[in-house]
Design a protein that fits this description.
Blueprint lengths: L5 H13 L4 E5 L8 E8 L4 E5 L6 E15 L5 E8 L6 E4 L4 E17 L17 E7 L2 H9 L4 E9 L8 H5 L6 E8 L6 H10 L8 E2 L2 E2 L5 E5 L5 H12 L9 E4 L2 E4 L7 H4 L9 H9 L30
Length: 327
């Protein structure tokens, strides 16, 4: 019998620190032919396990120490779901079904228990999924139909996807989020090319499309799912986020009602909601057409801060002539 105790964990952690890969495995299985493979993985911050999948094997990760982000992907490379597992968050582990692309990022010194079916097959990781270069930020700006369409107009934005962020249930459906009982916010995952557009500019543009002092309400849409927020996955982005928030606060006497938090979890919304206003040009939107034109015109100056008089008034009415259906 092999027991996981502090001595074993400490030993594996020390080996990980000394490893050029900043990662070390301790095997509990006796043979590669065993029906179940069990590993104790020690990871140091900065460690990335490339995005891969196992065509015929389920996999489970359980956190014993530290904090790790686990992200699953669609075949297209778009994020399917992302969550941080840690003892303190109460999310202790994740199950990865067979044939689902996934990758891991270590956020602080961590120890994971990994289990998957055996026996080992050479080259069982059926390729590495190529993820498009770029950076990302997750932005909640009310109804995600309009917010996504707005950011798609900005030069340098590579991809957008709508989903649900920072709630407390697993893999929620839109109908579940709509009840305001899951804690999720309608959110747009914005992937951008930092050589073309800066995070600072994107955040300045974000504030042009929201009422930052309105709590849980944007336009006609009301509820905690419509709260505003900036959710980041890279702590190095925080100083830029703090700078833009401080600049925006100068324009208001009331405190900003915009969340500023690490991304704890994210789940992609159903296909019906993706690129909604491209598929339904006259569909409901809480943002006016003029704001989309504003985003398109901002392309030429997208690396400079927007002057204070270059503003667009947040719409109180739907000027697109939609059917009034809310997301």
């Amino acid at each position: 019998m092999k027991i996981i105790d502090e001595q074993l964990i400490s030993g594996v952690v020390e080996q990980a620190k000394q490893s050029p890969r900043l990662r070390m495995n301790y095997n509990f299985h006796e043979s590669l032919q065993d029906k179940c493979h069990r590993f104790l993985n020690a990871l140091e911050p900065g460690t990335f396990i490339p995005v891969h999948h196992h065509p015929d094997k389920d996999e489970t990760f359980v956190i014993l120490k530290g904090k790790v982000r686990v992200t699953t992907y669609k075949d297209s490379g778009n994020v399917l779901a992302s969550c941080v597992i840690s003892q303190e968050s109460g999310t202790y582990g994740v199950d990865i079904p067979k044939n689902v692309w996934h990758g891991l990022e270590c956020l602080e010194p961590s120890v994971l228990l990994e289990c998957k079916a055996g026996p080992f097959v050479e080259h069982e990781m059926d390729g590495i999924l190529e993820i498009k270069n770029g950076k990302d930020i997750f932005l909640a700006g009310g109804c995600f139909w309009g917010t996504e369409h707005y950011f798609k107009q900005i030069e340098g934005v590579v991809e957008t996807e709508v989903g649900f962020a920072n709630g407390h249930t697993a893999d929620p459906s839109y109908k579940e989020v709509y009840t305001d009982t899951t804690g999720y916010a309608e959110t747009v995952h914005v992937k951008y090319n930092p050589e073309i557009v800066s995070l600072e500019f994107l955040l300045q543009m974000f504030f042009k499309a929201i009422d930052p002092t309105s709590l849980n309400k944007q336009g006609h849409d009301e509820g905690t799912r419509y709260r505003t927020g900036v959710y980041y996955t890279n702590a190095e982005d925080l100083p830029i986020i703090e700078k833009v928030f401080a600049e925006e606060q100068k324009h208001y006497q009331q405190p900003l009602a915009v969340e500023k938090l690490p991304l704890q979890n994210y789940y992609s919304a159903e296909e019906y909601h993706q690129d909604y206003l491209d598929k339904t040009p006259n569909g409901y939107c809480h943002l006016p057409e003029s704001l989309f034109e504003f985003a398109r015109q901002a392309k030429a100056a997208n690396q400079r801060p927007l002057p204070s008089d270059e503003t667009t008034q947040f719409p109180n009415n739907d000027s697109r002539g939609g059917d009034g259906q809310q997301t």
